[in-house]
Amino acid sequence: MPQVTANEQTKPIALLSESIAALAGAIDSLGGAQAEAKARYLFWTASFVNHTAAGFLKLKELNFKASKLLVRPCLEALFNVCATINRGDFLFEEACAEWREENKYAAKDPSSRQEAEDALNQLKAYFGSCRSNEDIRKDRLFVSEVADHAGLAAIYNSAYRVYCQYTHGALRAAVGDLDELTDSRDTPYVTYVVLKLLRLLVEHCGAVCADLDALEKSLCTHFDSGAVEND
Predict the structure, then answer these.
(1) How far apart are CA 37 and CA 148, in angstroms?
(2) CA–CA separation, 89 vs 231, rounded Å?
(3) If we measure between CA atoms, which residue out of 42, 47, 52 comes closest to residue 28?
(4) How far apart are CA 26 and CA 83, in angstroms?
(5) How many structural domains are present in the chain?
(6) Which of 41, 199, 204, 226 is 20 to 30 A from 26, alpha carbon to alpha carbon?
């Protein structure tokens, strides 16, 4: 498979740039973080993805391979936010998973332990959960489960696994064996995530974006968005 030339990247990069600008405008149209928990999470995730995509774009324009390291966090953010929308209790599960992760590195003295327990109790009170702290401590939440809740298991089992190899510094990524497979896909994947977040902001938060349909149609001319989900 021949490598993708700079000229072949021009249109996908231009579309990503337009999509980033559209998502930024949609975020601004909301006038700040939303009151309801799921909408607020969607708002902040959209902001995170927009910043990450902007960083990807800059690296891609410079033809830096480091741009590939930013595809995975975009995909994972999409898994999280779609799972939040699809499953009522997912946001609490995700908050507990992050609590468990932070608790691994916290000091283990009695005062710090109590602070951690207090933080967990606050989470439970906020979400109205009656689950025991012991059960929450024993839980595990895997990315594969999140992708399944999101309805994006196909992406997890294909693109996500490939881009994880860049994140982990795997041998195939280090020697460039994955570059031909991914070079033509990096930008469309990030654009796909940006436009998915944009669509969710419009549908679930009331954000405004007059160009969304046109941008989604343009993505299909560069990279079949249906194929992305079933890649």
Answers:
(1) 22
(2) 28
(3) 47
(4) 21
(5) 1
(6) 226
Which residue, among 143, 142, 41, 56, has the nearest Cα to 92 in the 3D structure? 41
Tokens representing residue 198 in the block: 């944009």
Residue 130 lies in a domain: yes
- In the numeric block, which tokens belong to residue 110? 């009695």
Cα 148 from Cα 151, distance rounded (Å): 5
Calpha distance 58→12 (Å, rounded): 13
In a domain, 1, yes or no: no
Tens digits of residue pLDDT in 102-142: 888 887 888 988 999 999 999 999 999 999 999 998 898 99
pLDDT digits (tens, 9 = 90+) for 178-222: 999 999 999 999 999 999 999 999 999 999 999 999 999 999 886
State the average pLDDT over residues 45-67. 96
C-alpha pair distances (Å), 215 with each of 105, 131, 151: 43, 43, 22
Domain range holding 94? 6-229
